[in-house]
Amino acid sequence: MHVSARRRGLSWQRLPLAQLMSALVLGLLALLSAGPGAMYSVLLGTGVALLPTLYFLWRGLQVRGGRRPRISVANFYQAAVGKFGLTVALFVVVFVSVPPSNPTFFFIAYVAAQSVHWLTPWLLRDRPTP
């Protein structure tokens, strides 16, 4: 199969699944090391990262292909702004209504989920590392 054909077939579900896997691993480590309160903080931190990512994927991938590039770029920018706004709103909601019992684990989980998002292009590439 040609490389471009394989890239077109890449599934957008890989990013949220990778973020969920990082949440499960961190949640288990938090549960074993600091108890259920820390695991709850990890789940909150991952949720604050995962929900905006799902919004970004939904909004940014509405128009696919090169048929209407102007609309695709507009959707991408609207998705990025929406993701930022949703992230800020979720941080406010979490810290006002449901304060995490362990903020350290909350921020570690958030940064880990964001790191998975940032590393996704590297994780999905087809060529070996030089």
UniProtKB/TrEMBL annotation:
The record's annotation in InterPro entries points to:
ATP_synth_I
Q: What is its main location?
A: membrane
Q: Where in the cell is it found?
A: Cell membrane
Q: Does the keyword Transmembrane helix apply?
A: yes
UniProt keywords (A-Z) are: Cell membrane, Membrane, Transmembrane, Transmembrane helix
| GO CC terms, sorted | plasma membrane
Q: Which Pfam families match?
A: ATP-synt_I (PF03899)
TM spans (from-to): 12-32, 38-58, 79-98, 104-124
What membrane topology does the annotation report for this chain? Answer: Multi-pass membrane protein
Q: Does the keyword Transmembrane helix apply?
A: yes
This chain's protein is named F0F1 ATP synthase assembly protein I
What phylogenetic lineage does the species belong to? Answer: Bacteria, Pseudomonadati, Pseudomonadota, Gammaproteobacteria, Oceanospirillales
